Amino acid sequence: MIEIKNINKSYTGKRALKDVSLRLPQGEIIGLFGENGAGKTTLMKCILGFLPYSGEITLDGSPITRKNIARLSFATSEHSFFPNLAPKGHKEFYAEHFPRFSEKRFKGLMDFFELPMNKTLRNFSTGQKNQFEVILSLCQGADYILMDEPFAGNDVFNREDFYKVLLGILEPRETVMLSTHLIEEVSGFIGRAVLIRQGKIIGDVSMMELEESGHNLMSFIKDTYHYRADRVSRALDELTGRDE
Fold this sequence. Notes:
Layout: E1 2-11, E2 14-24, E3 29-33, H1 40-47, E4 54-59, E5 62-63, E6 72-76, H2 87-97, H3 103-113, H4 126-139, E7 144-148, H5 156-169, E8 175-179, H6 183-186, E9 192-197, E10 200-206, H7 207-213, H8 217-224, H9 231-240
Parallel strand pairs: 3-8, 3-9, 6-7, 7-8
Antiparallel strand pairs: 1-2, 1-4, 4-5, 9-10
């Protein structure tokens, strides 16, 4: 289990995360939702140790260091692969450095996305690069797979099919934390929703709890965020002078 306790992070004096505490057990698919700048990416990068922070993050009770970092993987639209290397070279590199790397899963996902094995990554389209980033994160053999807007540049059909494939291949030990704005698309795919706003966790609920209460994910997010349904009409009135 990953335990996040009272995490704080600031950029040039501005708080990006404020006393964030979460528990991420193995075997969950978690959606991380929030506005642009809410702190989603910052939280993931703190978990991975990419950013300094105050507070405590542990994996099964131990700090996350070089000794256990291989149990975490990361898929981001910023890309973390070698652009001058082809997928075949990445496969060989990962197989050498990650003992639990799954060549079977790698081949299956490459076939699913119809990606070329011998073409350098710099010559992939943006959508293909994002697909390959997801493939690497899923094949590393990690127990915790963090995905930050991984489907940017991919069409709705690719995304929908991928959700189904992902549900079919994940093992009970694997946890996925998915940061995305595609709320309605992933509502039937995740098991838990975590909401973050202005660096604070403001909601944490299982999809089963939502279903039992008669709510759906979108209504829960709108209610928790205190979304104003008249926001657009008010803005239009002000911009067009209709209230005069």
